[in-house]
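Section 5.1 Outputs to date
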Amino acid sequence: MTTPLASLASCFQGLLPAQLFTCSSDGVPNAAYLSHVEYVDAEHVALSFQFFNKSRRNIAENPHAVVMVIDPDTGQGWNLTLRYVRSETEGPLFERMALRIEAIASFTNLKGVFKLRAADVYRVDAIEPAPEELGAVAEPGRRPGECGDVRVVFSARAVRDVVERASRAESLDAFMDDVLAAIDASLGFRHALLLMPTEQDGVLVTVATRGYPQNGVGAEVRYGEGIGGFVAEARQPIRLSGLVRGMLYALAMHRRASEPELVRRTRQIPVPGLDNADSQLGVPLMVRDELVGVLCLDSERPYRFHEDDKALVQVLGVCLGLALQRLQWHERAADVPAESPSAAPEAPPHTERPAETASRRPALHLTYHVEDACVLVGSDYLIRGLPATILWRLLRAHEATGRTEFTNRELRLDKSLNLPAWKDNLESRLILLRRRLQQKCPDIALVPRGRGRFGLELACPVVLAERP
């Protein structure tokens, strides 16, 4: 082969569908579209075996095939002459292809409906440009093989700028917003969200967003759902290019499948996202083998993330994970005892809400549903889980004693909250609660009073009720 197979990496991202041509033993040809072609090594590719039974029967009779792939940057088509070698139903190659298929399926609510049955490995005997798919000439200064409006995104300098800004954050709250702002400024991604694990196994919660019409703070994602859930499950970056095409392909394949349609689980808070996202990248924030968060990036551009970016994306995830964990430890170390008010740092200036003004406003009715650990404001959902339990504990204390000043330490020592003895992520839960109140119920505010301390401020009377 005069053209190295590795040089066609852009063709294997699934932005443009590949075409597979086979022929039966008696000379009857067949053509089929493929969701993607997987690069294996310098001499082999793998094709997904899902629904193309006619193509599979032809290969069983005649192990030779041709697949045409198209470079999304240049428009150049390439014909790969293939010879069937083997099928794999387990191992790294199979898992990698299955993960991509499942990730695309999750966006159409078809996770688990259609599965990869095998990764069919073929030897590439020849590579030739397709005369009917002649590409454009790449412009100088672009990434090799690129043309048009696609430029290098994850440069070492851009990643360094993001990490440096994250490392300068003085609090966990500031870190969440600074990271997304730095990604916008240095990498050019206007749409991003940050997820963190919750106290519930296999569940992430949205703690910060940027660029979406809906805020989405408090939205939950289960492992295996959407790009964030798949990243958390796989503990590795997941990159989806040509997302719209992949989703349409998934729907077409589902119509041919006999398995029943899945019903999307109802969420109290919708997860933010772009209706026309064509590329997505999920980055696990890892410290050693521990997942401390997931960063998700959206783009309306096709093929926004390149194979060459993978190493820098992994470095970005590790650096942000370390910065996040450092701030969590730092804020926990700043806890002050509830019985030592003099140990607290000087409170920053803030505006008190006059009690006489609050008393003249209509009362706010809140209901806590014990079984679901969920708080409603009137009939509207506010928050659930540990943040809801914390809010209810604070409001009950205020109702009983009139208290308005609290410490992180006393919450950690409160056995009724069932916080884990280690890595309780209390600070991130308080940040989530504060942001959710600002968004949904601004008459209740948690106001920082210095490290390890905060105040509860009410702009109106509050009436509390509990339900089983």
